[in-house]
């Protein structure tokens, strides 16, 4: 999806960034850092995983193929029901479903809709370990939403490797009354034990107090990247 968006084939891309069970989606986070992308929206969706194969039961399954996040989210179920099966990480759940169309001993983990798309049976339903499992996605696109009064701004920052640098990084937010809803670090892959900090703050970059905080952050950072401001997803949680 990143590739399609960056090549201009797609106007928008919807990319997973964090899961309520497994945490950050590392590959997405690294691409947000390294690629020239802009976030214009977000959505959080419940995750329901289905086991898909050519037969409607579990008999004869030797391999289960899916994206590593899906495999991790279903690890308990797989240990209980398919303990002898090979677990095969693949690039996407769609790839796992595609492989299942070619091998009757292989099952893929994917969304329910993939069964109809690939002509597969649902061998088991809702196999995720956590009932309330959700994934947060961000929408990549060139548009810049106007402030709504309920917005989020996403940043990637790095600071000099010295004592107190992270404290100083967060200080402008407190000084300007801006709340932080997410703070996560990832290796900057420079080889020097440096880290990039992924930060979500409440508010829109065009709001005066947020703009002032961002200006102070920019001055304090060794690297500053504003990914964009966008409306906070208000989709009600499922019971």
For the largest sheet, list the strands in their spatial order.
Answer: 6-5-7-4-8
CATH topology of the largest domain: Alpha-Beta Plaits
| Strand element count | 13
- Which architecture of the largest domain per CATH? 2-Layer Sandwich
Organism: mine drainage metagenome
GO molecular function, one term: prephenate dehydratase activity
EC number: 4.2.1.51
Keywords: Amino-acid biosynthesis, Aromatic amino acid biosynthesis, Lyase, Phenylalanine biosynthesis
Note the main attributes of this structure.
lyase, 13 strands, D-Maltodextrin-Binding Protein, domain 2, 5-stranded mixed beta sheet, 33% strand, Preph_deHydtase_CS, alpha+beta, 239 residues, EC 4.2.1.51, phenylalanine biosynthesis
What order do the helices and strands come in, and which of them pair?
Layout: H1 2-6, E1 13-19, E2 23-24, H2 26-34, E3 39-46, E4 50-53, E5 63-66, H3 68-73, H4 75-81, E6 86-89, H5 93-100, E7 106-110, H6 113-118, E8 121-124, E9 134-140, E10 151-158, H7 165-175, E11 180-187, E12 195-202, H8 208-220, E13 223-231
Parallel strand pairs: 5-6, 5-7
Antiparallel strand pairs: 1-2, 1-9, 3-9, 4-7, 4-8, 10-12, 10-13, 11-12
Helix pairs in contact: 7-8
């Amino acid at each position: 999806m990143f590739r399609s968006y960056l090549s201009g084939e797609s106007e928008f891309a919807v990319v997973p960034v964090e899961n309520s069970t497994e945490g950050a989606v590392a590959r997405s986070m690294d691409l947000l850092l390294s690629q020239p992308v802009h976030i214009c929206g977000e959505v959080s969706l419940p995750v329901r995983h289905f086991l898909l194969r050519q037969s409607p039961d579990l008999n004869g399954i030797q391999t289960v193929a899916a994206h590593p996040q899906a495999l991790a989210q279903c690890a308990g179920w797989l240990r209980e029901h398919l303990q002898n099966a090979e677990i095969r990480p693949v690039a996407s759940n769609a790839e796992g479903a595609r492989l299942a169309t070619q091998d009757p001993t292989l099952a893929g983990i994917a969304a329910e809709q993939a069964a109809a798309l690939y002509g597969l049976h649902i061998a088991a339903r809702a196999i995720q370990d956590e009932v309330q499992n959700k994934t947060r996605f961000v929408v990549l696109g060139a548009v810049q939403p106007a402030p709504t009064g309920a917005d989020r701004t996403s940043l990637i920052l790095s600071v000099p490797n010295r004592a107190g640098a992270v404290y100083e990084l967060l200080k402008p937010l407190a000084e300007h009354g801006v709340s932080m809803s997410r703070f996560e670090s990832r290796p900057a892959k420079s080889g020097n034990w440096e880290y990039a900090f992924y930060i979500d703050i409440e508010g829109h970059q065009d709001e005066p107090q947020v703009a002032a905080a961002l200006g102070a952050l920019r001055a304090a950072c060794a690297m500053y990247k504003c990914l964009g401001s966008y409306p906070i997803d208000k989709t009600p949680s499922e019971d």
